[in-house]
Amino acid sequence: MAAIEEAKRRDGPDFSALPEGCIARVVSLTSPADACRLATLSPAFKSACDSDVVWASFLPPERPQTSFSLDRHSGKKCIMLSARALSIIWGDTPIYWSWTCMPISRFAEVAELIDVCWLEIRGRISSCMLLPGTHYAAYLVFKITPRSYGFELLPVEVGVGFAGDDAGKHERSIELGEFLTKEGQDGEVEMRVMETKRGNWKAGLVVEGIEIRPKDRK
């Protein structure tokens, strides 16, 4: 027994015996990558490292019309642009779009499509807000109301890419597209959702914003 106790003493203190709040406080002073590594040490460390308090401490200060979160697999930053941060054609014309609140939204306002025949939504973000050498994907965050119409079997053009480049196109997809940030690359990433060719009237789309998430899972 004495030999076992001596071995434990030489191995150093058992930090997992500390209160979870204390562990979380220490981990919050490190980095997302460190938190992912520390979570593998013990169940106590995993519980502390998974806490919202820890991950909230890694986020930059919130900006108006922008929300930040962290991907807990990679520790990389996700950025969401609110509907107010987007360029929505006719967005300030009440007969076409309405600005309202949605209880589950991260933002004070969302944009609800009342009735348009020309749907065009664009968003831009500076590449300096993103990690270089990282694959990202952009997603339209939205919901459909019971009174929606005009989108049935109708291709909606979506895309994402650096401003000035040809953005990829997909049909009827929540994911707008992917892009890769490069070392030393400076510019703006542009994302778009459009339906302007058919001219039919559309309604019932509620836009919360566009979120940029890392595709890399390591």
UniProtKB/TrEMBL annotation:
Superkingdom of origin: Eukaryota
Matches recorded under CDD domains: F-box_AtSKIP3-like
Stretches assigned to the F-box domain: 15-55
Coiled-coil blocks: none
Protein name: F-box domain-containing protein
InterPro entries listed in its UniProt record: F-box-like_dom_sf, F-box_dom, PP2-like
